[in-house]
Amino acid sequence: MSRLPKQPGERINRARTVRFTFDGKPVDGLAGDTIASALYVEGQRTFSRSFKYHRRRGLLCCAGQCPNCLVAVDGAPGVRACTEPLREGMRVEHLNASPSLERDLMAVTDAVGGPFTPPGFYYKTFIRPRRLWPLYEKVLRNAAGLGRLREKQDEREWRSEYRRRHADVLVIGGGLAGLRAALAAAEAGEDVVLADEGAEPGGRALADGRHDEARALAARAAGAGVEILSSAPALGCFDGLVAVWQGTTLHQIRARRLIFATGAIEQPLVFAGNDLPGVMLSGAVRRLISLYAVAPGTRAVVAATSDRGLEVAEALRAARVEVVAVADLRAGWTVLEAQGRKQVRAVVLGAIDGSAERRIECDLLVVSGGFAPATSLVAQAGGRTAYDARRGHFALADLPDGVEAVGAVAGEGATAPEAVPPAVSGAQRGKCFACICEDVTAKDIHLSVDEGYDSIELSKRYTTTTMGPCQGRMCQLPAVRLMAQETGQDLQSVGTTTARPPWSTVPLGALAGPTYEPAKRSAIHARHRELGARVQWAGDWRRAYDYGDPQAEALAVHESAGLIDVSTLGKLIVRGPDAAEFLDRLYPNRFSNLKPGRIRYGVLTSDAGRIMDDGTICRLDDESFYVTTTSSGAGAVEQWFAWWLADWGMRVTLTDVTQGLAAVNLAGPRAREIMGRLSELDCSNEAFAYLDGKRAAVAGVPSLILRIGFVGEVGYEIHFPAAYGHHVWDAILEAGAEHGIRPFGLEPQRILRLQKMHILVGQDTDSESTPFGAAMPWIVKLDKDEDFIGKWALEHAAEHPSETALVGFAMPDGDVPTEGAAVLDERGEPVGQVTSARHSRQLGQVIGMAWVPSPLAADGATITISDERRRLSASVLTKPFYDPEGEVLRS
Amino acid sequence: MSYLLTCPNCGTREVTDFAYGGEVSRRPRERPSRRELGAYNYFRRNVAGVQREWWYHRSGCRAWFVAERDTRDNRVLWTALPDEAKAMQ
Amino acid sequence: MTAFEFLEVSGDAIARSPMERQALAAGARFEVRDGWNVAVSYPANGSLTWTDMSHLRKVEVHGTHDLTPGLAAKANGSWRCPITRDRMLVLGASDADGIDVTCSLAALAICGPQAREVFARFCALDLREREMPVGGFRPGSVARTPGYVLREDDDRFLMLFGWALGEYMWTVVSDAAAPFGGVAGA
């Protein structure tokens, strides 16, 4: 076939050929063509096979709305051939047909499938025998869906960039009304964005003879500063944020004013064979002729409900297509059936009162079932619709503040009288599709109502009508009409389904955006990598889990010295005249009597007396405290402190320095010597005792040194500016080299702390744990005069011993019980659980912590642990496994 | 959910900038009974309508403020710093 | 040592930015300036650049101030940036009295006519000319993490964020700037 003579508004460039392939065959089109227009010129009529019945489908809307022309381009499925511009070398392939579009074996479902494939058939037909369901499922999964994703993609290939855009006005829809609104706003000095789904702004006007006006308006709007986004459908409105997808960019637009100029959607008619290739909407025909100079057929029949539909007859004649009959519903005629095997060969027209019918041979049936305002996005933005009985569709009835509608979506320009088509005609003659995306027929809707799905929302979920790629554009109104007919309700009572995003089909990759994952890394992180650390996530930090041999690393801490990066600890500076009182109110123990330069352990409790976090607190001077928290609790503790401060209004300031300070823990019998080499401090036990906090230079770097003992050996936790991370780390390892120092990771630290029964909040405690249950009654100072958070609940807890207690347990070397394994009573009932367990090479035992019934919380008691199928016996300890009296620590 | 909140310090931001702190309740001033303590710790009014609630500008100034919001449609009536909020009725 | 000297960059050791390795990989040449190893030049040039400014001194100052919310004031080459009514961040002043948070906040300056478009890829702040005059200061989320943005000049935006997120943020910014031809610059 050849092109029509030059059309006044055509988009094609006849001087430039673009070559691409369709199912492997080379095809030539013109620059400015879409895939569909180029293929149509070459005689292609079948563009896809339908979802369920694998029926042939051809061009219906030519506006990117229906599912009929979905193809894969260069391996990416879900591309609409009717709107996708042609590119040199693009590889276009059909979807959903095997072995080929022309010979599709699954088309057998169309011939035999009707009675067997009603709505929900996969649950009805394929449930017996039940044991075969896994097989059925596999087969159905293979049969379902439209196209396949490639297993691997290039990094940026299917990913889109997010782009935030703030604006005064966002206009959605670039038809004449949208362009005018955008221009007016821009001329009034507003910052305007216009998002249009078309490749070129102008909308319907481009194809109905008003192209010059549209193009002039678009140029004026651009000149006035409107940012025009083309090929950019709006996907949804989310509390004022509008997502607009444009190729590789997902715009997230917030505007003070939203102007919807989304137009109206031409509706199909429901009759037998209404999905046959060659059945086209009037708008599609006009676009093919005007934009691409393609004759849609040779002999056409037109069936319409309004003058707009009839205007197409003129356009067809101008394109030298013979118009052999026009069925005007207002004159009492409509179409009953489209006939033909591969495409339309004839149509049967009928009088609406059943008094007459006529069969006419043709190769094109142009239908126009009226124009329904595209209200979905407006509804997502808070607009309401109501049924307009005179026009036979749902129209906007109410708009929220900041939301406007202009043009056809607002009912403007719809002056000509329209006739409301019947819900279905020619129903006895064959399949009449209400929903072409999901292959739902008028009969299916009848069946679903029969089965009790008699509300439009239920029917939607049962039949999946409106849930396909057209998102209700082609099927919402037909489904509502059918539902009204079946249930005897009026259309207003039936109502519409809730408008949900996405309004346009979009690849999931476009929504996912770039994969930014905020990963915190200590200032020493690069060194860990160089030392061969296994790096794992710990909360939002990347941490050195171990350096290859956690047991040996733990042993080094006992035998010589170890160095661990603890920069992830939360660190807060609490400062002000009321700082001490503030901490007294937050913690169950006292800090007002802590001397400057001394450290105290603290457990934060909620007002329910439950443990929230723990850490050490060092008093720097009268008004300043240095508070550390768990690594994962840093943010929550700052938030918690700030919250009470907001309520109490005390003279206290908080400064989070978690990331500002690197911290390392140098521990082991040789740690003191190493410290001595790195600083001028007197590190003797008398001068620098356990729980002292001193400020001094370490390797020339000003530091805060806390003598604490999380891992059970003499240890110095050194906090210093993060900018010196590598310097201090390197200096310590160098100074300790001759003492056998070894870096150790998170896992050996866990072994070491377990030997000391130092709890990990969140690991050994849960949201029900109190300091009493967790064997730390000494931390609660109920004799404090002042009120503190958790006081009342802890007073109660002190008087009512908890039913379970956290204890240590030890077992002979062997299997390590799984964390979370159950502790059993003598009858074999679960009464507790293991929270931590590790093999300890130092102790030659398996050790752990567990919650057990209080009567068992006694040294020497025996507990039984059920771990998968094993029963393990362990003996209870209430004092630390290693250095129970803390003599090593204090030495 | 992507509505806007106005931080009294920083101005208007996406709600994802903030942490929700729950409805404003009053910590008992005197030692509560067991029942009162339980109610304070565990019971929330959970209204369908306008409620006064705490918000924390986690990604911004890291300050707490108070908002009145309609829980049905996320319409925010006002936001204020705690001392100003005490005056709002 | 004074009470908070352990927070301050001082002494003989060389202070390093959390993005030093990324800058090195981008071909930076370094010089030690005021105790910091600073990238002073890069091989590539472009109209859109991002520059590691982590060495900039930052001090959190508590106490009421006279600043307008959202607007920083420049004096003697340093910026006073209001965060709340009684808390501000002072950037680039050697004598500011408060808690030194230099190493709590890493910093990148994104410069060039396309700077706003780069921000738009990872940040929801409204940085339009009218909303964000020179001196505009915005605490808020950047690349899904807490941050601050200061418009230092017509086409120069300074972004502050957590020190531990240096490597992450460098990746985000270079990824976002790449389609615009952005390069690391000094």
Topology:
The complex is a heterotrimer of chains A (891), B (89) and C (186).
Chain A: E1 13-22, E2 25-31, H1 35-41, E3 48-49, E4 56-57, E5 70-73, E6 76-80, E7 91-93, H2 108-116, H3 121-124, H4 133-143, E8 161-172, H5 176-187, E9 192-195, H6 211-223, E10 227-229, E11 234-238, E12 241-246, E13 249-260, E14 264-266, E15 279-281, H7 282-292, E16 299-304, H8 307-318, E17 322-328, E18 333-339, E19 346-351, E20 357-361, E21 364-368, E22 371-373, H9 376-380, E23 384-388, E24 393-398, E25 403-405, E26 433-435, E27 440-441, H10 442-450, H11 456-463, H12 476-487, H13 491-494, H14 508-512, E28 520-521, H15 525-530, E29 534-538, E30 541-546, H16 550-559, E31 561-565, E32 570-575, H17 579-586, E33 599-605, E34 611-621, E35 624-629, H18 634-648, E36 653-656, E37 661-667, H19 671-678, E38 693-698, E39 701-706, E40 715-721, H20 725-736, E41 741-743, H21 746-755, H22 791-799, E42 804-812, E43 822-824, E44 830-840, E45 845-853, E46 862-867, E47 870-877, H23 887-890
Parallel strand pairs in A: 1-7, 8-9, 8-13, 9-10, 13-25, 15-21, 16-17, 16-21, 28-30, 31-41
Antiparallel strand pairs in A: 1-2, 3-4, 5-6, 5-7, 11-12, 12-13, 14-22, 18-19, 19-20, 23-24, 26-27, 29-30, 31-37, 32-35, 32-36, 33-34, 34-35, 37-40, 38-39, 39-40, 42-45, 42-47, 43-44, 43-46, 44-45, 46-47
Chain B: E1 4-7, E2 11-14, E3 19-23, H1 34-42, E4 50-56, E5 64-70, E6 75-80, H2 82-85
Antiparallel strand pairs in B: 1-2, 3-4, 4-5, 5-6
Chain C: H1 20-25, E1 29-33, E2 36-41, E3 49-52, E4 58-62, E5 73-75, E6 78-84, E7 87-91, E8 99-100, E9 105-111, H2 115-120, E10 137-142, E11 145-153, E12 156-162, H3 166-177, E13 183-184
Parallel strand pairs in C: 3-13
Antiparallel strand pairs in C: 1-2, 3-9, 4-7, 4-8, 5-6, 6-7, 9-12, 10-11, 11-12
